[in-house]
Every structure is written in structure tokens, then in C-alpha cells.
Amino acid sequence: MLIIAVLISSLIILLIIGREEIHPSWYLPKNWIHIKKVSIGYGLIWQPKRQGVLFLLISMGLLWLSEQFYLPALNTTVLMIICLLSMPIVWIWQAQFQFHALEFEQITTFLQHFIAYFKSSEKVLLSLSESAVYVDGELKKSIEDAIEHLKNTGDTNGSFDIITSRYPHFIVNNCQIWVATAEQFGFEQSKEAIELLEDDIDDWIEDTMLFIRNRLLMKNRILLMCGMSAVIALFNQNLLSSFLDLDSVPIYHHVITLFLMSLHFTILMAFRLIKGRWIAKGECLR
Amino acid sequence: MDRKGGMFTVKGLSVLLLVMLVFANVSAKKIRIRKESDLDHLCRMNCHDLDEFQNSRLRIALKTSLIFPFLMFTRVSWSMQLLFLGLVVLVYRWPYLLLKKKFNGSIQHLKYEFPIWLRQLQILLQSNTVAVSMEISIPMAPAMIRGQLGELIKQIRQEPQKITTYTDFLSGYRLMEVTRAMKLLYRYNAVGQTDSVRQLNRMITTTGKWLRQQRISDQSSQSALFQWWGILPLLSVTIVFLVMMMVTITSFMERG
Question: Which domain holds residue A231?
Fold first, then answer.
């Protein structure tokens, strides 16, 4: 039974990982350091050990609920298996949330620092080198490649292409246009465009943060609804148990099992809410 | 076979023959069926041939109507036959509805993509003319705009003082925001240098607001569906409550 559960769980995990554009290596322990870096600020902590403890607590809570609802051992086992199957999925969704958060934070940080350095130095190579210090991971690699390309060929557009192909957001693209224009016609000609770009980046960050905050709030509201429903069902059951022997009513057991499964499914959906992209696909040009 | 059954068979056969006859000579031109008022426009925008589209959906609807003779053979009630008639009408309307949905999707897409392209243009306009800025923006322009951009540039080069050159751009989508922005671009290109910076700044402010509105509306539409998940636990607890009530009533009735 356990082997089948593990197999199904692995299959679901593979399907989830395969469908996403995130490289599977992101989920490997060597990358957990990046995941942890951005975790605290967004109200979610991706720490496998803590998640293990959380899983134990949820299992114990489920056992307690099963006992409260007079569920037979078979129904409890089914619920425990479903819980076991879905925990890795929640882990993966949380890791995806962290990936998108990191991706967004990295690119916005890079843009802000690059524009600031370019405003003062008016030199692309210097601005790229200085702003590379503030980022890491895939973006750092792209910036280093861009620097290398610029050193070898002196082609600003080509070096920026390396970054825009990895992050095809329209603001990154506009930054490329602005840099190319400033190089061609001089910095004075494109001063007003800097303000435009800076305003766009600020708006982008503000709107995205608001969106994520709303999603986290929505997730918490859904979890609260689940808790409230469980409490209402418990009250009901307390009322009923005073004049009925609930141990011997099979239909009641099945309905309660389905109810707990629906709660579990809703909790899963609440976690699914936060796994989406922070950089909207509609705003990307490729 | 009784008399009534015989009548149904004759009726059924005659309908079958009629349907086959119509089916053999089917052509949207021969059978004049009232087409939707915006179908011409939808076909043009989605690159469909109107006659071909009409013939194809008429043919599918007639194929579906072949079910009627069988309904008569099996003596299905009139209400059911009316229901199947509704089904045939739906089958006929379905391709149109799909076309309309596709067009509406394109409009939503354009509403998001147009301000993005306009922003690119505004940055390029700092040091280029309108036509040159548009030309530079082609490789980076969103896919929907890129297709018509080449034609627009060609027309601007030929007739830069003609306002319809600008207002005709993407006019098939009938978006007020696009027309307004194109008129501003025309004024920026046509009005003298002293006023042009003010015109551009006005357009920049509008585009900024537009971009944010589109982003926020896109994010809200993404979240709107998920909000309904919150109802599922309440719905489940209601079902649990109802089942418990039923169990209680049954148990009381059994006890007498």
C-alpha cells in the first residue's frame, strides 16, 4: 500500500515539475539556499525540516479529527494516504513560489541599480559590472555573459540581448532601447526616458507586491473557511452523538470522509494560489 | 406496424429525404439563412472566407439535423423534438460563437499589448521621428501589432499629414484607446516642435495609467476564479449537515 502511495506521489510530482518552465534542478538541495534567501519576506518559509514537523502535526490533527468524527480505521488510513500524497506537492508549489519571487526580485533589483549606475557613469560596461554585485543565480550568470560579450565585441545591443532573452519583460526591453539610444545620440537626449523607465519599474513592483499580498490574504481566508467548516461539522457531530450511536452509521462515515477530503482539496487549492508567475506572461515580448 | 406507426415512418422518411435533398444541394447562397450582423467583420478580422465559413457551418447543422427522421421513427415527444431543434440551432451558431470568443480574446490581448508597444515608442521618440521609432520598434513589438506595423510605416512615409493613416491602424478591433493614442501620435508628428513635447508628455501619462489598469485587471481576473474555492468547505459542511438530519430523521422513524 505504502509503495503504491509513494509511486503515485512520485508520478504526480514528476508531472507537476515537468509541466512547469522551472528547471528541475531548482528543487535539488544545493539550490535550497536560494529558496531560503527570499522566503522570510513573503510570509512563507520553505524549510524541509520544518515542513516535516508540520506534516507530522497535520497528520496528528487529522487523526484527532478522525477520532472526533468516529471514523473507522479504513477511512482514517485513506485520509492519511491522501495527506501523504499531497504534502510533496505543497512543497513543490512553495518552492515554485520562491522561484518566481526570487526571479522578480533579482530582475527588478538589477534594473534599479543598472539605471542608477548608468545615470551617473554613462558607461554600460561599468554599470553592468557594478549592478552584477547585487544579484545572483541565473541572472548573475546572464550579466556575466553580457559583460564578456561586451568586452569582446563592444556590441551593447548584443550583450543586452543575452539578458533580454532570459528575461523578455517589456521593461527590460525598454531599458535596452534606452541604453542603445543613449549610446547613439548621447545621454542628454534620453534623460526623460530614464524617468519613464524608473516610473514603470516602481509601478511594476508596487502592482506585483499588491497582487501577491492579495493572493496570500486570499489563501489565508480560504484556510480560515476550512477551519470554520471543520468547527461547524464538529458542533453538529456533538449534537448528534448525544442521541445516536455514530460508530454504527456507515453513511455518516462516508460523508464525513468526503467532507474531510473536500477540506483537504480546498487547502491544496489555497496553496496552489501562490505558485504562479510574478512576471506576467502577457508583459513578456517573446 | 400500426397505422400511427406507419404514419410516423412515412413522415420520418419524407423528412429524411428532404434533409438529404437539401444536404446534396447545400450552399449558403442558395439557402438564405439570416447571418449575424457582425459576422462579416469577425470573418475579416480572423482571416476567414465568409462564404466558406457559412457553408461549413450550414453543412454541419444539416448533418446534425439528420437526427430528426430517427426521432420520428422512435416516436419521441414533441418537447424532446423541440429540444433537438434547439441543439441544431446551437450547432449552427457554435462556430460563430467561437469566432466571437476568439475576437474578444484578441481584443483583450491587444489592450495589454498596445500600451506596451506605445511605451517602447515613447522611449524611442526621445531621439527619433515617429516613422523611424516605429521602424526600430518592429522586431521588439508584440506579435499582434508587428503584423500591421510595416504597412503603417509605409503609409506614414507616403502620406504623413493624413490623419486616417494613423486612425486606420488596428481600427478593426474598434478600441477607443488605440484610436486616441494614434491621434496623439499624429498630432505629435504633425504639430510644430514647440507643442510636440507637451503632446508627448500627455500621451506618456495616459499610457502609464493604461498600463497599470491593464495589469491590475489581468491580475484580478486571474484571482477571481480562485475566490470560489472558499465556498467549497461551506458547501461541504452544508451537505454534511443535511445528511446528518436525514440520518436522525430515519433513526427516529425506525424507533417509531
Answer: 65-85+99-286
